Amino acid sequence: MTDLSPPPATAWHTVGTDAALSQLDSHADTGLSAQAVVERRSQYGPNELEETGGRPAWRILLDQFTNIMLLMLIAVAVVSGVLSFRNQEFPKDAIAIFAIVILNGVLGYLQESRAEKALAALKQMASPSVLVQRDGRLQEVPSQDLVPGDIMLLEAGDQVAADGRLLEAVNLQLRESALTGEAQGVNKQANYTLADETALAERKNLVFQGTEVVQGRGRVLITNTGMKTELGRIAAMLQGVETEPTPLQQRMTQLGNVLVTGSLTLVAIVVVGGVTFAGWESFERLLEVALSMAVAVVPEGLPAVITVTLAIGTQRMVRRHALIRRLPAVETLGSVTTICSDKTGTLTQNKMVVQQVRTLSETLQITGDGYAPEGDFVSEGQLVDPRQSADIGLLLLDGLLCNDSVLQKEAGDWAIMGDPTEGALVVMAAKSGLDRHRLGHELRRMVEFPFSSERKRMSVVLSGVEALRSDLNLPGNVVQAPYLMLAKGSPEMLLECCTSHLRGAEGVPLGEQARSQILSDNADMAAQGLRVLGFAYRPLEAVPAEGEADRAEQDLVWLGLVGMIDALRPEVRVAVERCRSAGIRPMMITGDHQLTAMAIAQDLGIADREAQSLSGADLEKMSQAELEAAVRDVNIYARVSPEHKLRIVKALQKDHQIVAMTGDGVNDAPALKQAEIGIAMGITGTDVSKEASDMVLLDDNFATIVAATEEGRVVYTNIRRFVKYILGSNIGELLTIALSPLILPILDVPLTPLQILWMNLVTDGFPALALAVEPAEPDVMERSPHDPQESIFARGLGAYMLRIGVVFAIISVTMMVWAYNWSQQGGDPDRWKTMVFTTLCLAQMGHAIAVRSSTRLTIEMSPWSNPFVLAAVLLTCVLQLMLIYVEPLRNFFGTHMLSSFELLICFGFSTLLFVWVEFEKIYRRLRGKIVRD
């Protein structure tokens, strides 16, 4: 693409229509010429999102084999193969090791190779074709052919193909929720010129690529295309986010480094020491010892066990309505310290609900949840019938019939067809007992003056008012008039059209004191986070003509104010409390108004009354360093843009927080990708946000995030549990192999690499998988999150593994010395090796049973709380016996027959490790009691 360096970006919302046309050298009526289009396409390039190259599949696969443990196993396999060929033996050890290496590499590739499809989803938001004015003629062109200066025509149902400055707008409303995060349609105006700091969601004179025209029509001057659009900026941010290793991946890397370093050190000591004392003729035997040690130290089954554990975690989370898209995210959830949540649909139900009605004479609270037409009207703690009051009765009728939404039941749930705000008014009227279906037939709509952004109100004229006598206590002037106008809209704008109000059932002039009270009530309700509408009526003698809205909507009679809010999800308060008790900090980041955000946050317990909040405008004035200081104290962010969300996440991460970020719109995608856990909405979320996320909420519910965090903690606890089990056993194996040439009178080891692989995969693997499904401990959500930077060996895990490894080695070496001497007295002289092999395997079974809890004795735990452990132990014992007593397996694995007495000795020694672990628990319990006393 040729880059002729276009001029610096212009804040088009600050520029008038004539100036914008002049700046882009275009004409409102004729558009660009064909020659100008060609030149600009060369200058600006096609109107499409550009993709930066990611890692190809082959590179991802190759990267798996750069893991230090796999590199060591590859080296071991090569050396083992060379030795086998030198001795003219089949290289079964080398083949088995290579198979394990390939299996682990493939597992890593499958986890990492999921292609990033967020940009592809962004591209799908572009309209395939668009209607433009060129050379004075209307033409339909592919959207990628648009250039700055083109004149684009929009009508209802169109998808906007590029960013532009409105030249003309007729009742134009766009749905920008994918870009701004707000569900309400945005009314557009061409004749506005806005301040430079105007938030993206409030730039009513601009249209943006990827948004949708809900109603009306418009003419647009294209100002930005391709990567210069708001959608393009999001794509650039999305591709600019670098994926960091998860805490689990970092810990596994650290574990590999420690194990390989320790193993190579021991190998060096054994080989150098052996050559020093026994000479170079023993080098090959020492090399075989070293190979066995290297295989012993690497937990070959650990990657597979972790993968299966994470997969099991994903299944449990699906049952709790959380879909995990990337396996490592399961464990990362357990490390989360901060949850940044959107408001609409996550903390709230995404259902507008009327909570309050105020007239000049009284205030009513309305109960009920969602769209169900069930609730009460309460005045000063007493239930009232709102239809007995003339002004409130008419207000309810106004909300019901000056309205185009419909309340209906779908699959057992109440739903609104139409605008959510109007739907809330229908539900309010239904709670009072007004029947929309009957009244809609009896009162005929004669004319409608639809909502417009200039008037900020809507009104209808009805006939057949006499049918209301049985439903409402109507003022005399309403009953006597043949027609009735009902109006609703912005309280300030509607109040200007009113000259009187109702006192009882009579109209009285609307004085300055009454006007001041209405405006004061409006401000008070808005401060509570309520969306406020005003209501008025006027009896008419004749039906006004179409287009006479301004004349007809005069001398109105004021009825009152209605305050509604996106109702809170009832379970969210409890979820926020659970977050607090678990040491997790909940935050709200929303595109909504600051007052609304603060009111909801305080109601939920996310913030207290003295809490500070920041708006997008505040963030614009702050440096990143200032924001990094502010995020430690501020929990509420309102009117934010995509860049702001990304900055907030980065600031939290700079403070060493593990961040979970929710989002549903295109604008959320960069922040979702930047966060350690990006959480997309399954119901309202765009494809872009889902592709950028690690987890999808199937019910769009904040409480589900907390439930998933709990599952993540359980998974991490279980990972630590089976790492403790596997590595404690591996250290015991390593020490046993290392000590055998030093203690026995011969230069030999009890285990072949193939037998070690069997232990690391089967004897370690099955019990480890069983430990992975250990149920949650009761206090899992009462602990603070573990330090995301803590070592895998933290909190005593490293000391436990070393201690158990040494005890395991002492037991095994003691048994090995006895078995060697016993086997030399008669029979097969090498059966001592099989006795050591069997003791090591069986001892690990006792360890698996004991390691289920660090504090409770095995006899204090129900074996049926995790029956998989018992099943794994029994299965592994049977398989181990098959290696001894089934001839084909015995020949392949190089084991020897054992007598009943010898097998009993193996069982006896193997129980000692179980006894040791149980005595450790008793000792810790007694020591804790002494300290407390």
* Largest β-sheet summary: 11 strands, mixed
| Proportion of helical residues | 40-55%
Overall residue-averaged pLDDT value = 86
- Number of separate strands: 28
Classify the secondary structure makeup into a structural class.
alpha+beta
Estimated radius of gyration = 37 Å
Shape: elongated
Distance between the termini: 78 Å
Strand content: 15-25%
Residue windows where pLDDT falls under 50 for at least 5 positions: 1-7
Number of helices: 34
What are the main properties of this structure?
47% helix, 17% strand, alpha+beta, 933 residues
Structure, explained:
- With 933 residues, the protein is α+β, with helices and mostly antiparallel strands.
- The strands form four sheets. Strands 10, 11, 12, 13, 16, 17, 18, 19, 20, 21 and 22 form an eleven-stranded mixed beta sheet that branches.
- A hairpin with a 7-residue loop joins β16 and β17.
- The protein is elongated and about 120 Å long.
- The termini are far apart.
- The N terminus is likely disordered.
Draw up the topology in text.
Blueprint: H1 17-23, H2 34-44, H3 57-64, H4 68-86, H5 92-112, H6 118-123, E1 129-134, E2 137-142, E3 151-155, E4 163-175, H7 177-180, E5 186-187, E6 206-207, E7 212-224, H8 230-240, H9 247-278, H10 283-297, H11 302-319, E8 322-324, H12 328-333, E9 338-341, E10 348-358, E11 363-366, E12 377-379, E13 382-383, H13 390-401, E14 406-410, E15 413-417, H14 420-431, H15 436-442, E16 444-449, E17 457-463, H16 476-480, E18 483-489, H17 491-495, E19 498-503, E20 506-509, H18 512-527, E21 531-540, H19 549-552, E22 556-568, H20 572-581, E23 585-589, H21 594-604, E24 613-615, H22 616-620, H23 624-630, E25 636-638, H24 642-654, E26 659-663, H25 669-674, E27 677-681, H26 687-692, E28 695-697, H27 702-743, H28 753-763, H29 765-771, H30 797-823, H31 831-850, H32 867-885, H33 887-893, H34 900-932
Parallel strand pairs: 9-23, 9-26, 19-22, 23-25, 24-25, 26-27, 27-28
Antiparallel strand pairs: 1-2, 1-3, 3-7, 4-5, 4-6, 4-7, 8-28, 10-11, 10-22, 11-12, 12-13, 14-15, 16-17, 17-18, 18-21, 19-20, 21-22
